[in-house]
Amino acid sequence: MRFAFSLRHPEEWSRAFDQFPCALDRAMQDGLIEMLCTPPTAGAAVAAVTALETCESQIVVEALHNSLLSPHSSVRLAALRSLYKRKAVGIAPVVSRLLDREPSWMIRQAAVQFLAQDPTDRRWDILKASTDPHWRVRHTLIQVLLDWSQSQSRPQEILDRLRAFNDDDRIQGLRRYLEYRQSHTSANVPPVDEEDPNSWCPFWDWDPAVLAWRLEEMTTRERAEHITLMPRLVGHDDERVRRWAAHSLLRDGESPELQEALRWLDDPRHPAFETLMKLTSQLDPERIEQTVQSLIGSDRLSPGQWCWALDQMETTVFIEDRSTVEAFCERASEEGSQVRSALARMLCRWDVEGRPESIRNCLNNPNGDVVLATLREISKLEANDELLRGFSVDEWQRLLNWDDPEIRMAAVQVLVNQEWITEFVSGLVNDTLGSIRQLIAKWLVKTIQPANNGSHVFESGQIEQWVCQLSQDEDPHVRAAALTESRAAQLLEEPTKETSWLVLETASRLCKTPFWSLAPEPLPSRSSPTPKNPVWLPVQHNTQFATRTLAGFNVAPLGISGHYGLPVGGYQVSMEAGVNLMFWEPNYQTLTDFFGTISPSDRKTIQIVVGTFEASPKRIRKDVERALRKLQIERIAVFLLFWTRSWNRVTDSVRAMLEQMQQAGMIATYGLSTHSRPLAVEAIESGWNPVMVRHSAAHRGAEATIFPIARAHHTGLLTFNNTCYGRLLQAFASEDELSPADCYRYTLGFGAVTACWSAPATMEELQTNLEALHRPELPADRRLRLEEIGKKVYQEDRMFGQFVRRV
Asked: How many CB atoms lie under 10 A from the CB of residue 277?
């Protein structure tokens, strides 16, 4: 119980995890579930998900399911991945909804993987991802569909189902790519008809940092002069550009610009969706009304425009001419489910004769999204019992029988305020969803109160029997909801009979007893007088490989990146193997933690590569200062301008700031990274050192264009993506026993290359990758085989880029 109690306090939960017991008892399980429902931080919730991995209880599955609604994407992702490992059943409709509305592409990607293992026809919901705005989600979908084509012999069924979707460009491209992969024949790739943004935006730059910096540097008047461009820029992939465009629209946008910008609300998955939602929430009522009136008069609206207009009606905007509203609603009823859901919300608010019948029609709609939207809107209304008085028992039962747990839960939330609830209590007290049992427990406890006199509709003692049953429920939230004053008093007399601090706290509140009097002794402080033993490097470094020179530093030819969260111990293992080159970004938490565990002298032996995505001198300096502070170091070995796409990124003021920081000893040297080979060549010839570029057996253009120039100028050359994101190993795994180390050996075989980046996620991957250091030679036959595979991967990448990625 001491461990579980510590989980309730923000300042103590991490101490509890430091002293975590090997086996979970009932109190720890209850404490972790409660923590997952109301976490002090996102990190605490993720830690709780990890700690519950070995627990197979259904209430843990439900707690993970509820965590899919967390405001923190890291928590939602951890919960979904845990549910995937458990092969959880009964939540496929909820996960399917993530493919429609989830803003994080990584979570949508995980949702595809979750649904792909569903044994029912629900698995076909993964085809929603065929229109996903992020190519990585569509790539995951393609991998699943290709696997199904081979293992289930249904390539034609897949293509037929895709044809049943709205035939937009993304679906067409995905279908053509699948046909290409299934036929194993080359396809003629048509040229992409892309509009050059320079033709409509006079201050455009392909480097997002430059474009954002230009917007920031404009005066308010200058941005206002370009207000007609802002509806397009507010949909930019880069958040900094979107922010400045939204700022300009909020200040100076009128109905025409706002109406056009609302098209970005068409797809809740697009990053611009949240930007527009925030923007529209800050608009003044006058502009909202003008824009709504303009939309009502338009002949053709996008889904986002429809939904926004409907959501304003009867809340911010009240239109006196009811015939106009009726005509608008009639048109909306013929649109897709996204618009019909917004219409359902609006009809619930529209206080006119016939509203109950409209709501009834919405609740009987076969589309679950419409039903859910209606139920959630009804639950917000006061005195909603009048709206549903004509709803029959059979109709309520239909809602409670949905296979979607969110619809069932929303139905019960409405039902507890209806007289029909008495018809369903006996079934709901045994419902599989703890959240429903919790609602019913609250209703029963309220009903049993003498003032309510609700017991007369049941047999004598029946409510008491149900309350007693729920007070012993496995779910602590249900037990807390089922507490009566008498039961609470019993618990406080013998608190050791309860394993949940939530229940005990509720009991204390009911009995007006100080909860602190039940608090156990706190756990021992993790900060003992003896400091942590620092991790010391071996006196002798591994000397089985030759180091290479990078901007004056001797470095191992294989560097370790923290991108995929290698465990802290992995960095120590890599150092013991002789690795002294590491790549860091602010969200690489395990690498940050590792630097905190080693001594200052050991930190100095690591040549750390850090960078910035900014184009502002002040922000670049802030990035350097943050890295120095978080890594607890005095100097950064190599500082890069990340993913440079334009020389406009390197202004005189930026160059001056880099030189200033170098002279101050904050950075030892600076360079840039880029995907553009022409820009890399120009950088090398201009004296930039080092430079970071892409290279693999599938993307060999650098061998002829960059490597000779780098060697001639003695430029340090870092390379990334040497495994082509694993595709060199996955595509033909059945034919070859190639390893990641072979991919690193291949690139390191070119004398111009100083080092490759490896980004392992696990200790096993790290050990495999380190083989490139222990045995650096790549036999000639394997090199030839790798190049042969690389050609095939390149061809597939070319088709993928044309048909999928760039659509």
From this structure: 13
Q: What is the pLDDT of residues 531-584, one digit of tens each?
A: 445 544 443 445 567 889 898 999 999 999 999 989 999 999 999 999 999 999
Sequence ranges of the domains in the chain? 2-131, 424-523, 550-781
The closest alpha carbon to 254, from 221, 296, 289, 219, belongs to 289
Residue entry with tokens 């392992």: 760
Q: Is the pLDDT of residue 391 over 70?
A: yes
Equal fold, 2-131 vs 550-781: no
Count of CB atoms within 10 A of residue 127's CB?
20
- Measured CA to CA, the distance from residue 26 to residue 1 in angstroms comes to 9
Q: What is the CA radius of gyration of the chain?
A: 30
Across 103-112, 271-280, 319-328, least confident range: 319-328
Instruction: Identify the CATH number of the domain defined by range 550-781.
Output: 3.20.20.100
Quote the CA–CA distance of 535 and 599 in Å, as a whole number. Answer: 7
Query: Contact at 8 Å (CB) between 699 and 722?
Result: no
Mean pLDDT of the chain: 90
Q: What are phi and psi of 71, to 5 degrees?
A: -70, -10
Q: Cα 495 to the chain's mean position, in Å?
A: 41
Which helix (H) or strand (E) segment holds residue 468: the answer is helix 462-470
pLDDT digits (tens, 9 = 90+) for 20-56: 666 778 888 998 999 999 988 898 899 899 999 989 8
The token pair that represents 351 in the structure block? 């206080």
Rounded Cα gap, residues 47 and 37, in angstroms: 13
* Beta strands 548-550 and 553-555, pairing class: antiparallel
Residues in the chain: 807
Say yes or no: domain 2-131 is CATH 1.25.10.10.
Answer: yes
* CB-facing half-sphere around the CA of 113: CA atoms within 13 A: 18
Say if residue 735's pLDDT is above 90.
no
Q: Which residue has the higher pLDDT, 322 or 698?
A: 698
d(CA 568, CA 30): 29
Under 8 Å between Cβ of 410 and 375: yes
The mean pLDDT of 246-255, rounded to a whole number, is 97
Contacts for 419-424: CB closer than 8 Å, 24+ residues apart: 419/385, 420/391, 420/393, 420/396, 422/457, 422/458, 423/393, 423/396, 424/396, 424/397, 424/400
Within a 10 A sphere around the Cβ of 379, how many other Cβ atoms? 17
Task: Please write the tens of the pLDDT for every residue from 77-95.
Answer: 999 999 999 999 999 999 9
How many Å apart are CA 77 and CA 70, to the nearest integer? 10
**Positive/negative CA dihedral, 790, 793, 797, 799:** positive
Do the beta carbons of residue 309 and residue 292 sit within 8 Å?
yes
Task: Write down the pLDDT at residue 152.
Answer: 67
* Relative orientation angle of helices 780-800 and 740-748, to the nearest 10 degrees: 100
Question: Across residues 689-709, what is the average pLDDT?
Answer: 96
With tokens 């004398």, the residue in question is 751
- The owner of tokens 């509140």 is 509
SS (H, E, C) 131-176: HCCCHHHHHHHHHHHHHHHHHCCCHHHHHHHHHCCCCCHHHHHHHH
The mean pLDDT value for 714-725 works out to 93
Nearest Cα neighbor of 583 from 764, 721, 680, 703 is 721
CB 557 within 8 A of CB 544: no
pLDDT the model gives residue 536: 46
Q: Does position 703 have pLDDT exceeding 70, yes or no?
A: yes
Assess contact for 337 and 365: CB atoms under 8 A: no
**Segment 507-537, tens digit of pLDDT:** 999 999 988 788 776 655 554 444 445 544 4
CA angle 122, 128, 134 (to 5 degrees): 140
State the pairing for strand pair 691-694/607-612: unpaired
Query: Between residues 64 and 796, which one has the greater pLDDT?
Result: 64
In terms of Cβ atoms closer than 10 Å to its own Cβ (0-12, 13-18, 19+), residue 456 is exposed
